[in-house]
Specification:
- By secondary structure, the chain is α/β, with parallel strands linked by helices.
- It has a four-stranded mixed β-sheet with strand order 1-2-4-3, sandwiched between helices.
- Strand 1, helix 1 and strand 2 form a beta-alpha-beta unit.
- It is globular, with a radius of gyration of 15 Å.
- The two termini are 24 Å apart.
Length: 163
């Protein structure tokens, strides 16, 4: 799996953790091992420009996703398609404020936002209540499994996360 991280923000963060949680998410969702993902980390001004340009919403946001080949999670009985997933754009300044409110680290917030962004690339959304339950349930399951793997050195292995 090719995961490129471009930190254009000047913000010091755990790029390894972001790449690791992205890779874990893609494995869990049965995405082809040759799929490509780009994670771009930008400052508030750049994120605000993207937010206005693509969502017509003011101010910076925490994460945006730009799908390319519209890959979807693989199924047990099928080979997953190969292709370009797209770009996940993160804003660590917004993430830092959210992390403070949530009572955890900025790195933990960025890792959660990475999973969130990857799920958006895979077609998940949270515009409707049932979509929100599904996406946030899956996001929570993936993060818990990833954190458990990091803590005890065992992997949850590829496969769909519950939820």
């Amino acid at each position: 799996m090719s995961i490129d991280i471009a930190n254009e923000s000047g913000y010091e963060l755990d790029e390894h953790g972001i790449a690791d949680v992205a890779r874990f998410t893609l494995d869990r969702m049965r995405i082809h091992p040759l799929a490509e993902l780009s994670v771009v980390i930008v400052d508030e001004a750049a994120m605000e420009q993207l937010h206005i340009q693509w969502m017509d919403l003011p101010g910076p946001t925490d994460v945006m996703s730009f799908p390319m080949d519209e890959l979807r999670p693989g199924k047990d009985h099928e080979d997953p398609p190969q292709g370009l997933l797209g770009d996940v754009v993160l804003c660590p300044e917004v993430a830092a404020r959210q992390a403070k409110t949530a009572g955890h680290s900025t790195d933990a917030e960025l890792q959660m936002l990475t999973v969130h962004g990857v799920l958006h690339l895979l077609g998940y959304d949270h515009a409707e209540p049932d979509e929100e339950r599904e996406m946030f349930g899956l996001q929570g399951d993936i993060l818990r499994a990833w954190q458990e793997r990091r803590e005890d050195g065992t992997g949850a292995g590829p496969g769909p996360a519950g939820g």
